[in-house]
Design goal:
Layout (H helix, E strand, L loop, with lengths): L3 H16 L4 H9 L3 H28 L6 H15 L7 H10 L5 H30 L5 H26 L1 H4 L5 H17 L2 H28 L6 H15 L10 H11 L5 H18 L1 H21 L4 H11 L1
Length: 327
């Protein structure tokens, strides 16, 4: 695992490299003439997608035998989205929500649902990108088609590896150290439950809706700064950027994300300044939309501080109330 300081250096170096190509005057002009109604629409759309994503994750949790209640799942999901903005890894928010959703004896299952949720969401984003290409292929440069094709191929290959691992889990288990056999079996069974056909169909439909909202928000952001890029070309960059930014080589994807947008959107005729501005505006939009998760996190901390005083002696009622708070 790359150390924090190495990743910080990579992010700083890439951002500095991109900054040398930016016309700050032109960027400031675009911001000053920005149409902020589109940005407000983007924030609202992203927040709606988070609620849909939480509902989708709830289905995975129930399939894995974890019923935390829909409100508790929404809270954990929003807190995870919020902490993603402040932890030095994009996986930090996922670890947070897995920890909040799980309890002793269910941590492995909760973590498995988060992984399944992330991977299948990426698959849905790839499908949405190809659908956009099907309806607007004439405006998409061949290099973007190739980049998305490579990303899709890597995704399919990884999916096949996982499918083989799940099917051959019984043969792999004897090769593991004894202390890992139980967790590996639990993860495999949770994975099978999450990928059962009835669950997979419902979560896939929700995932397509989730990613369609993300795509719509990206288009709103582009409109807010008058970014001249075809809708289909913009959407085809999203899965590629998501995969590249997820690599554990930078702080939260910063630098890698901006550089990726500069290279990919540049193929569609977008300048470095405009592509970088779009990337930063997209990150800002997500950060604003995830602020309710920060409020949920503060509320959770307040409950933890005050509940022992307010509840008094332990009782069945107070125990149930505390469980609801911790949900």
């Amino acid at each position: 695992m790359t150390s924090f300081w190495v990743r910080a250096l990579v992010s700083a170096g890439l951002l500095a490299l991109v900054a040398t190509q930016i016309d700050f005057g032109a960027g400031a002009s675009r911001l000053s003439h920005g149409r902020w109604g589109w940005l407000v629409a983007a924030v609202a759309t992203v927040f709606t997608s988070l609620l849909l994503g939480a509902w989708r994750w709830h289905l995975y949790l129930r399939a894995a035998g974890i019923d935390r209640g829909l409100s508790g799942v929404f809270r954990a999901y929003l807190i995870g989205a919020f902490t993603t903005n402040f932890l030095p890894s994009q996986a930090g928010g996922d670890v947070t929500r897995a920890w909040l959703a799980g309890r002793r004896g269910t941590r492995i299952r909760a973590a498995t649902t988060v992984v399944v949720d992330r991977v299948t969401a990426l698959g849905c984003l790839i499908v949405v990108a190809w659908l956009a290409f099907a309806f607007g292929h004439s405006s998409v440069p061949g290099t973007l088609v190739a980049a998305l094709a490579v990303t899709s191929g890597a995704f399919i290959a990884g999916w096949l590896v996982v499918a083989l691992a799940v099917r051959g889990g019984g043969r792999i288990a004897p090769r593991l150290p004894a202390r890992f056999v139980g967790p590996a079996r639990e993860a495999r069974e949770s994975l099978r439950a999450c990928l059962a056909r009835p669950i997979l169909w419902r979560t896939s439909l929700l995932g397509l809706g989730f990613q369609a909202l993300i795509a719509l928000a990206a288009w709103f952001i582009a409109r807010s700064i008058a970014l001249g890029v075809p809708f289909s070309a913009l959407l085809m960059t999203l899965p590629v950027v998501v995969v590249l930014a997820a690599a554990p080589v930078s702080i939260g994807g910063f630098g890698v994300r901006e550089g990726s947008y500069v290279v990919l959107l540049g193929q569609a005729g977008v300048g470095t300044t405009e592509a970088t501005l779009f990337s930063l505006m997209a990150a800002t939009t997500f950060a604003i939309a995830s602020l309710p998760g920060g409020l949920a996190l503060l509320q959770r901390g307040e409950h933890r501080i005050t509940s022992p005083v307010e509840s008094g002696p332990s009782s069945p009622e107070s125990a149930r109330e505390q469980e609801m708070v911790d949900a």
